[in-house]
Amino acid sequence: MKPWICNCAVFIFIIAVTSAMAADTVIIHRVDDFITPADIKSGISPADRDAPRVAMSHKSHEKAGLECIQCHHKENNDTRIYQCAKCHKGNAGMEIMHSACIDCHTKSGSGPADCSGCHSRKDAELKGFIRFSLFDFVKGPGLWITFLVFALGCYYRVTQMIKFTWMMKHPTSHFISPDLIRTSIFYKNKNPLMKLLFKIKYSFRKSVFGWNPVMGTVSSIFHLLIFTAPLTLPAHNILFDEAFRISFITLPEGLIDKFVVVIIGIMIFFLLRRVFYPRVRMISTLGDFGILLMVAVPFITAYFAYHQYADYRSVLLAHIITGEIVIMAIPFSRLGHMPFFLFARFFMSSEYTLGVGNRRW
Amino acid sequence: MKGLKTEEKIKLILQRREAMIKLCLSACVHCSLCAESCFKFHNHSKDPSYMPSYKALHSIGKIFRKKGKLKDEEFEEMKDLIWNKCVLCMRCYCPMGISIPLLIAAARAVCREKGYYRTYDVISKRIEKSKKVLTK
Amino acid sequence: MVKAKLKPLEEIFGMIRSYKKILTLSCGGCVSVCMAGGQREGMELTLELVEFFRQNRLDAEFTHYTMERQCNPEYLFDAEEIVREADCVISTACGAGVQYIAESHPSKPVFPALNTLFIGIDRDVGLYEERCRTCGDCKLGYTGGICPITRCSKSILNGPCGGTHFSDGSCEIDREIPCAWNDIFERLKSQGRLENILTVHPPSIWMDQAQRTMVQYGFEERYRKKE
To answer: Averaged over C123-128, what is the pLDDT?
Structure first.
């Protein structure tokens, strides 16, 4: 792995966490922030009044004993990432949001009920602005940049691989007559199902599952989960949908939380293996530990964010930033074994090829 | 190749394979899953220095990092690693599909230029020994 | 494994005398184990040829390079450029290696420097004995681990022939040659499985006649001829 990637990751992570810790305040978007031309056509007009943005502290509301759902109604709002102003637009939206806050404040007798109590320029513009724009950046253009870098990097890697390998021809294929091919007993089985089973068994036994079943299974589970968990999380799919208009099948959040626990557990196993198993220790470098840490951070922050162990917003920010760094680093670091694996196992000629396997170095 | 010094020849050899070596070395995740596929590894009571990835990383990896400028002792050590501990049977399993024998062959090419290679007439002692064992 | 011997220098010289840029390509496989075409032998051959050319007042540029194997596509890359630079190639590999180099560089004349002799064992350093003729139908199972195809002068499968000198167990062709079938009999007798050669074995299916291609099992699906 290139050291600068590791340094950048740590650096940005520290900046994100410290800037996030500075304030747990959330800036509530103005009701006309998300108004589109289509909305104006359909009769929604921008708000009449103009006031500074509202800075709201989640912590103080939680201390007062409020449930999340009291403000973040779950209906059509699965992730709680959506801004109120995304749906509650224009004058009508302003009415709803005003009444939601002010009614509660007056009823409970705590919290400001006058305009300047909430609409204070000082809090909103100064405290949260930097962090907020960062958050918007990583969620919007950041995501685009990430996937663009990832896709171009993978493309570069694969073209490199195509460049350094060449297509095998089988010049002698016309010599092969069926009677010269010695068929093994596994393939002579008449029953097609048994034949398939034998085939699978045979290819399993000669692969890593045959001689190192523990490591084979563990790493298969790990690699399966590391893709399933992020791709099927509802929150991520909403982000994908917002950014690229695509989404995948989603699994329940509780299940994915368990996946994340398994992933972190396996990573600890990998770490212990690297430290204590002589054959792995002998070829380990500092970069290997760096990569392990780099991949672990997004999952640890995801776990913290889901369970709301620390300040939700800042953990989420750290999660998004580190996650994007890891995705961008895939083609350019040891994580490059992702495109490499797919290419090599399906197109390279070897004993263990899974696909056509007609290329050689 | 003609009329070049040994160092320049080594440089040329490395240059020609540079991209391939770089690609393979960067794709190796140091997972050690290749160990069990090596028959030498099994025959030598699972000594980790017989592991294919160890052999590749400590031969061509080392040469590549130092751009071929190694001390004579290091070459001598490497000779043992890539000739006696590997027979280039090409049966190693790499989950990433890296061709480990190709990397070791590149290391051998460099060593050959330096004049380190295996000679087969020094095994006579071993033959004597095995003869004794057989006649017992 | 494969055993080979260097051709007479005059013969090699005759093949390459008209070329100006000559590459000696050694092989690091079997021929370097039998000390016929490894790196050192290749280097020695090059030096000898330089001297030979000088004696004959001819001028040529010699290069030497050692490939790991000359019979495997993955190692071909090793010498690709060097081969391309040369006018002709003298390969010190076995017949298979020479053919593969010639096949992959169709425009280059490739000459053999070795006579490939047999598949054999290393009796001692520099002393080799033939043990297999790759007949394609191994009979060692019932002949007590002695190959009648290789060892018997007539290569007969149901021996002995009747010309054996039973006094010292030698072949009728030469008193120096031990009779393979006598040895087979002695070994089977000592192991108590003489019944192995009491039955008549049918004639062998000789596969040596046409070029053979082999597909290892487990790989049938990959290389089966597409109908």
So the answer is: 81
Contacts of A172 in chain C (CB under 8 A): 213
> Could you confirm whether domain A141-170+184-360 is CATH 1.10.1060?
no
**Neighbouring residues of B6: CB distance < 8 A, sequence distance ≥ 6:** B113, B114, B115
Tokens for A123? 């809090």
Least CB-CB distance to B33: which of A161, A212, A333? A212
Chains that touch A (3 or more CB pairs under 8 A): B, C
Whether residue C195 has pLDDT greater than 80: yes
- Residue A35 CB: number of other CB atoms within 10 A? 18
Min Cα distance C217 → chain A (Å) is: 6
- pLDDT (tens digit per residue) in C159-176: 788 888 888 889 998 888
pLDDT average, residue stretch A245-270: 87
Nearest CA in chain B to A347: B97
The domains of chain A are located at: 24-127, 141-170+184-360
Lookup result for tokens 């040529």: C60
CATH number of A24-127: 3.90.10.10
pLDDT tens digits, one per residue of A117-140: 777 655 555 555 555 567 777 777
Residues 6+ apart with CB under 8 A from C76: C67, C100, C101, C104
pLDDT, residue C4, reads 92
Closest CB from C73, C211, C220 relative to A187: C220
- Amino acid C226: pLDDT: 54
| Mutation target among C220, C223, C226 for the A interface, most CBs of A within 10 A | C220
Structural domains of chain C, ranges and CATH numbers in brackets: 2-119 (3.40.50.2300), 133-227 (no CATH)
Closest-approach residue (CA) in chain B for A290: B29
- Which B residues, 1 through 30, put their C-beta within 8 Å of a C-beta on chain C? 1-2, 16
What is the phi/psi pair of residue C212, to 5°? -100, 145
CA distance A114 to A98: 11
- Chain C within 8 Å of A164 (Cβ-Cβ)? no
Compute how many other C-beta atoms are within 10 angstroms of the C-beta atom of residue A294: 23
Contact A105/A111 with Cβ under 8 angstroms?
Answer: yes
Q: Render pLDDT for C53-87 as a digit per residue (tens, 0 to 9).
A: 989 888 888 988 888 889 888 888 778 888 888 99
Respond yes or no on whether ipTM tops 0.90. no
3-state secondary structure string across A156-193: HHHHHHHHHCEECCCCCHHHCCHHHCCCCHHHHCCCHH
φ, ψ for residue A308, nearest 5 deg: 55, 45
Q: Taking residues A172-186, report their average pLDDT.
A: 53
Q: Which residue has the tokens 């509660």?
A: A104
DSSP codes of every residue in A249-289: ----HHHHHHHHHHHHHHHHHHHHHHHH-HHHHTT--HHHH
